[in-house]
Write a structure and sequence with these properties.
Strand content: 5-15%
Number of helices: 12
Largest sheet: 4 strands, antiparallel
Low-confidence stretches: 72-77
Oligomer: single chain
Shape: elongated
Helix content: 40-55%
């Protein structure tokens, strides 16, 4: 049961019970308050008996506490997939298929059957993006935070080479606890990274070495530490004047690492901002401002950084993460290790010059 569902349940007690505080444990939601008028606990039990929940009551002085947990059948229910989710996903499948087909030299606009040439790229990229967002969704559910299923965003492949602007989930209720904030923020990048790395390895094994002609124009992809390491391992005899022409699966893996790196920037409400705030508390504001300012010199290497910096400023307006209630509660050793793991992933995925012409 999420906080939104719990509050809707409490609305059914209007006129009978006045909730003053709410909270949760790993297994249940708890509200503390007082009965109104001539209402008795038996009246509250009768109202709640119609709901698919387990509940029990406790008293502390004049305060009444209602403990609520979901039936297993409710916990395991399949979330409803809205038409918006379905339409956006289908459109994203189509646009990424077209993007992948164009990469392979297909002409899906004139020969629709050639859209199937884009299956390797589309399947790999959507798997990486989907696992990233479902990582957030799973841990949001685990911590009783109300969140939507992922929204996939299609993009015209002739304007945006990969055919998608990515995906996101929407958080509909506040996150009160640092451990929940860190785990929800970290789950996406870690899940996406776990899928992107083997995809990149498989894609590199399918890639080919080509001779570079200095007179030809094209897009050169930047290397992260991880990309350099894998390239050295799989192409140890790469000579001067040669480069690796990435297979679409490898390109999707490369995009996955780029997306992971960008999301782990310790700015605002990016995944990295959530993690940094949970790890550093109010010091995240300073770290976020430094990271945002660092995008200016990086833009001298690649204008992509300037574009991303402007988008961050427009969408978030601040590098500082909004406060949560238990900011001074120490993180467990396990959660600290998760934060450090995300820092290592960020370093491995960091690309100083993502794109060059």
């Amino acid at each position: 049961m999420t906080e939104t569902e719990f509050r809707k349940l409490l609305n059914k007690l209007d006129g009978y019970f006045l909730p003053r505080k709410i909270g949760s444990t790993a297994r249940e939601w708890i509200t503390a308050g007082s009965l109104l008028g001539e209402t008795s606990i038996a009246d509250i039990k009768r109202i709640l008996s119609k709901e698919p929940i387990n509940c029990h009551f406790s008293e502390l002085g004049d305060e009444i506490r209602i403990h609520v947990s979901s039936h297993d059948s409710v916990i395991l229910r399949i979330p409803k997939i809205s038409k918006t989710h379905q339409i956006l996903f289908i459109l994203t499948v189509i646009t990424t298929l077209m993007a992948g087909a164009l990469m392979q030299g297909g002409q899906p606009f004139t020969n629709p059957a050639e859209i199937l040439m884009g299956v390797p790229f589309s399947l790999t990229l959507l798997l990486i993006l989907g696992c990233h967002e479902f990582g957030h969704y799973y841990y949001a559910q685990k911590h009783k935070v109300d969140a939507t299923l992922p929204y996939f965003l299609p993009a015209p492949p002739f304007l945006f080479i990969i055919g998608t602007f990515g995906a996101f989930i929407k958080i509909n209720s506040p996150i009160y606890k640092k451990d929940a904030l860190l785990q929800i923020g970290a789950a996406g990048p870690i899940a996406g990274f776990i899928i992107a790395v083997p995809a990149l390895i498989i894609g590199l094994m399918l890639s080919e070495v080509i001779a570079i002609d200095g007179g030809e124009a094209g897009i050169i992809l930047g290397d992260s530490l991880l990309m350099k390491l894998l390239t050295e391992m799989l192409f140890p005899n790469l000579a001067d004047g040669q480069d690796v022409l990435l297979h679409p699966v490898a390109f999707a893996g490369w995009i996955g690492l780029l997306v992971t790196m960008l999301n782990l920037l310790p700015i605002g409400q990016l995944d990295g901002g959530h993690i940094a705030y949970a790890m550093l508390g109010e010091r995240q504001g300073l770290v976020g401002q430094i990271a945002l300012l660092a995008l200016l010199p990086l833009s001298l290497l690649s204008l992509n950084w300037l574009v991303w910096g402007i988008l961050i400023i427009v969408l978030m307006r601040t590098a500082k993460h909004p406060p949560i209630q238990d900011i001074h509660t120490p993180l467990s050793r396990e959660n600290q290790l998760i934060g450090y793991a995300c820092l290592v992933i960020f370093i491995l995925c960091f690309i100083p010059t993502p794109f060059q012409i």
